[in-house]
């Protein structure tokens, strides 16, 4: 192969640009879908505008270079990596709340008090399970603090059965004390 005939722009520069454009637009798309579910109406249209603008630029380059295998591979790789990056960013933002449903024989009252003192909203009610009477506790937790809550639950003896669900909206009432900006994007990155 004669390297003087190699088209650096077509086989390297354009695929790299397609990859990064796709990386950004798919990352934004992933975040946009998650924010739609969280009901964040003010941010979503802005992300959608930027996302489709970048997507249009990227698809234009792919369509102009359909015979370029590197451009097609860059498109696919950018989609894959963008999806992964969007999920990582969303996980670090930890927006919203989650409902933890705990089924247990009898949750100690001092444990319930420690949950309340830690700022979690707890509602308990009686139920009948497969092995007799049980209590069901519903605990609302900011998603950023879910790990802390699950650690507390796993330290209980005996360990209770629990499920975790996403919550779209949390209304006012007797629940956890939440900071006014708990839904803000600024400063929402959780530390690892």
Structure description:
There is one protein chain. This protein is an alpha+beta fold. The chain has 2 domains: 7-93; 97-167, Alpha-Beta Plaits (2-Layer Sandwich), CATH 3.30.70.120. It is built from 5 helices and 4 strands. A 4-stranded antiparallel sheet has the order 2-3-1-4, covered by helices on one side. The longest helix is centred in the N-terminal third of the chain and has 30 residues, at 8-37. The chain is elongated.
Structural features:
4 strands, alpha+beta, 5 helices, 49% helix, 192 residues, Alpha-Beta Plaits, 4-stranded antiparallel β-sheet, 2 domains, disordered C terminus
Topology:
Layout: H1 8-37, H2 44-64, H3 69-93, E1 97-104, H4 109-117, E2 121-129, E3 132-142, H5 146-154, E4 161-167
Antiparallel strand pairs: 1-3, 1-4, 2-3
Helix pairs in contact: 1-2, 1-3
InterPro entries: DUF2179, DUF5698, UPF0316
Subcellular location: Cell membrane
Transmembrane segments: 12-31, 43-63, 69-89
**Lateral arrangement of strands in the main beta sheet:** 2-3-1-4
N- and C-termini, Cα separation: 49 Å
Portion of residues in beta strands equals 15-25%
Mean pLDDT: 85
- So how many helices? 5
Low-confidence spans: 178-192
- Helix/strand class: alpha+beta
Basic shape? elongated
Range of helix content: 40-55%
Radius of gyration: 24 Å
Write the H/E string, N to C.
Answer: HHHEHEEHE
Number of spatially distinct domains: 2
Membrane topology: Multi-pass membrane protein
InterPro entries: DUF2179, DUF5698, UPF0316
Domain DUF2179: 120-170
Subcellular location: Cell membrane
């Amino acid at each position: 192969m004669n390297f003087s005939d190699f088209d650096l722009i077509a086989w390297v520069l354009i695929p790299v640009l397609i990859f990064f454009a796709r990386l950004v637009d798919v990352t934004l798309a992933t975040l946009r879908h998650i924010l739609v579910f969280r009901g964040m109406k003010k941010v979503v249209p802005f992300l959608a505008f930027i996302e489709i603008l970048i997507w249009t630029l990227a698809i234009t380059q792919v369509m102009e270079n359909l015979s370029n295998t590197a451009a097609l591979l860059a498109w696919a790789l950018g989609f894959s990596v963008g999806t992964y990056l969007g999920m990582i960013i969303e996980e670090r933002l930890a927006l919203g709340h989650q409902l933890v449903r705990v089924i247990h024989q009898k949750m100690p009252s001092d444990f319930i008090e420690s949950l309340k003192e830690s700022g979690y909203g707890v509602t308990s009610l009686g139920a009948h399970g497969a092995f007799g009477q049980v209590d069901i506790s519903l605990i609302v937790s900011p998603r950023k603090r879910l790990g802390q809550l699950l650690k507390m639950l796993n330290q209980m003896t005996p360990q209770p059965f629990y499920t975790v669900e996403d919550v779209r909206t949390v209304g006012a009432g007797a629940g956890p004390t939440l900071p006014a900006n708990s839904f803000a994007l600024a400063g929402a990155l959780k530390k690892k």
